[in-house]
Structure formats: structure tokens, C-alpha cells
Amino acid sequence: MILTNSYTRLPERFFARSALTPVAAPHLIALNRPLAEELGLDADWLAGPEGLAMLSGSEMPEGTDPVALAYAGHQFGQFVPQLGDGRALLLGDVIDRHGVRRDVQLKGSGPTPFSRRGDGRAALGPVLREYLVSEAMAALGVPTTRALAAVTTGETVLRMTALPGAVLARVAASHLRVGTFQFLAVRDDLDGLRALTDYAIERHYPEAREAANPTLAFYDAVVNAQARLIARWMSLGFIHGVMNTDNTSISGETIDYGPCAFLDEYDPGKVFSSIDQGGRYAYANQPRIGMWNLARLAETLLPLIDEDAERAVAAAQESLSRFLNYYENAHLAEMCAKLGLKTAEDGDKELIEGLFDLMAKSAADFTLTFRALSENPDSARALFSAPEDFEAWKARWKARLAREGTEDEARRAAMRAVNPAIIPRNHRIEEVIDAAVQREDFAPFEAMLAAVTTPYEERPDYARPPSPQERVWETFCGT
Ligand SMILES: Nc1ncnc2c1ncn2[C@@H]1O[C@H](COP(=O)(O)OP(=O)(O)OP(=O)(O)O)[C@@H](O)[C@H]1O
Ligand SMILES: [Mg+2]
After folding, report:
1. Is 119's pLDDT higher than 90?
2. Which of 93, 103, 246, 264 is catalytic?
3. What residue numbers does the annotated binding site for ATP cover?
4. How is the chain split into domains, by residue range?
5. Which of 296, 397, 452, 469 has the maximal Cβ count within 10 Å?
């Protein structure tokens, strides 16, 4: 099996070739056969010895030309001019069954020229977390990188303690990040930026080529894609946790499931990540941070937007100012659908905010609230600390529903199709990781994967929020 690598057509300063680091005893713990099929890859080959050698980063099939990509990035607001794939290796790309080019990358496959002080490795826990959450997101219809396979290495990686090592094979629409553009901009590499922009347009937004100003049209398309992505996260209670510009993808996919988590009880200020001390990436801050990241992308594109600096800034600002519009429209549409409304009308925003206010006051479980409203609104009452306030809100909602006049059963079915019963709850992820790390027991991982990839089906065991003893307060990058 040979993967092509379209990045190697770009100037050499975008990437670095890197020696492979064979691992001691690779063992396949998960293979996503439906995804392999979608990509036109031979799943049986992937599961065999040559496949395993490739998936563990030990040995590549003849003709493969893997590279580590260069990028920079703002991490928690601080600019770092050189990051890059320090523990990832882009094996190459394939054209999938829909004619779309997709990247296949290993994460945790050993040091590269961009490793700085890191060991280039990943621990099993974060690999399982990324596998579960990215596949759950895909099943929930959220643009996301995918998990193709996970392999244990038979080696330990040293974090706080010695942990089993693993490698994730990840698939993405591309691995271009806002930070990829920043890497070139900070080096005043205008030719590089032009080549990169052309590549990104070609790959993700070909319609921008026809625009009067293709760079501006490209920028606007990224703004739109990110706004819609973040609206989707917000509608599910997803907290990315590390929305640095190097974790902001140009294609509009969710990338880097480091310290991510889903809300249990609704709290707009919620932060899980142990490294997010200031709450920069708290749940409710995500749209604002998305816009901030896109402003950083605009800065890199200015010289390509217009030779005249002032005109370039004005055009980019106008485009960026549309973010809020894109976001609010997408968010309103998502929330209306969650409440069983087919169209949005004046007053819906207040109706939605009214519900969130009550949820915040009661620390109501995000996922259960919407699922209960989809099934039997009376059962939602128990989630609220002031049932009479909920009843008052419900009366407003019912009056609004009556105006639309959809038949009740049809509306409930539509709501059940957008309000998941199952999200990958943090306490369950921790259980899965514990079983795998402590006992080499992967059965809980497999069971949870099956549950989170059929998120609209009732499964009380996975739907249940954590008890006070089970609650997980913090997630760790745990690189
Ligand atoms: N163990 C490690 N060894 C070397 N470099 C690392 C390691 N962990 C993280 N890095 C590097 O630190 C930077 C920031 O890491 P971050 O956690 O955002 O990315 P990541 O999780 O490794 O990968 P991705 O964004 O591709 O999902 C990246 O340049 C990354 O390659
Ligand atoms: Mg990252």
C-alpha cells in the first residue's frame, strides 16, 4: 500500500523528513475498518505485519515519503515562532471514496526535527481519549479528524510516571493549521505564503479561485467554517480545552483532542484542562477565542489580500467581522433544532437563553436536559432546582411549538435525532483508560466506542452523569 504525499510538492521549508524510530513490540489495539474502507485502504493489510509496522512508525512501505510539518502558533496567547510536528509524522494522503484528499498521520511515532525537548511519544491514555472523542464527534456530525487505528508500542514513556506508549493513526481533511501560515509569516516568506494559500484553496475551498480576490474569499471561507464548527461544539457542550492557533485547522475540522471534555452539568465558565489556569478556553469563551485565532490568520494573509496595507487591513477586518454573524446564525439554527423548531423567529434567542439561565442555576446536566425535552419534558423537571421556573419556561416553549404546529411525535423524533443520549463522558473515559493502562483490559474501550459511535440510541449505562464520587474535575494534556 502506497500513500502519496501532496505536501512534498510544497517548498521544502514547510516540512522536514525524519528518520523512523522502530518500536519494541507493536500491537494493534483498534482498527477503524469502516474508515479504512471509506479511504480505500485495505483493512486486512493494515492489520497484518506490514500494516502494523507502518501504523507504529517502525517501517514504511516502499515509496512512502513521510514528513513532519512545520508550524508556529499562539499558545495561550503567547506566540511561539517554531513548533511543528514534534511527535507526529504525516505518512501521506489518499483520495477517499468521495474523491476527497485525506491525510493519514501518526501521532506519537517518535522524535522529529521539531521535537524541541520532547520525546516524540504519546502515552496510551491520551491516545484512547483522542480515539474515543474524535469518533464520537464524527458520529455526532461534527467536522473532525478521525481515528484510523491505535497501536501500543511495548515501550514505556516517562511522564509523571512510566506509562505504556501508544501511537494513534489519525485522518484529517488536511493538517494545515492557522499556525502553518504563522510559521511563514513570521519569516516574511511571501513566496511560501502564496504557495501555501494556493495549496489550501485548491484542497479545501476551490470556489475561492473564481473570486475577484481569491485570498480574501479563502479567508472568508475559513472564518465561516470555524464559526460553524464552534457553533456545533457549543450545541453539544464540548470544550476543546486548548484552542491555540496551532490547534485551529484551516479546513474547519476539530483537531487535537488533548485536554478536551464534554460538559456534564451546564456551567458556561467551565474549564477542565489542567493547563488552562486563567480559563482562557472556558466553554463560553470558545466563540471569542475562535475569532481571536482567525484575526491571527488574517495578519498572515494581509500582504496577499492587497498590496496596500491599509486596504488589506480594512478588507480583512470586514471579513472577520462576519464571524459573529456566521456564528450566531449557526448557533441559533443548532439550538432551534435542539428545541424541535424548524425555523427561527424573533424571540427564539431569548427562549434559548432562558433555558440556559435555568440550566446554569440548577447545574442541570447539559445532555440529559435536551434529551429529556426530546422525550418527555415532564421528566426534565427533576433536573431543575426551581421546578416552577422550569414550568414557566416550558409553557413559553410549548406556546412557541404550537405556533409552528408540527405534530408532537414527529417533533420528538426530530429532536431525538439531534440531541444525543450518549456523549463520551469524562468519568467513563477515565475508567476506560484505567482499565487499559492498569490491566491491559481493552474491553471497556471497545464497549464505550460502540456506545459513543451510536450516540442517538438509548443506553442508560453510558447516558448516566457521574455520581459525586465519579466526577472528574480536571483533564491533562498528558502528552
Ligand atoms: N512528547 C512530545 N514530544 C515532542 N513534541 C511534542 C510532544 N508533545 C507535544 N509536542 C509538541 O508540542 C507542540 C504543542 O503540542 P500540542 O499538545 O498542541 O500538539 P499535539 O497534541 O502533539 O498534536 P496535534 O496538534 O497534532 O494533535 C506541538 O508542536 C507538538 O508537536
Ligand atoms: Mg496540537
Report:
1. yes
2. 246
3. 84, 86-87, 107, 119-120, 170, 177, 256
4. 6-175, 341-405
5. 452
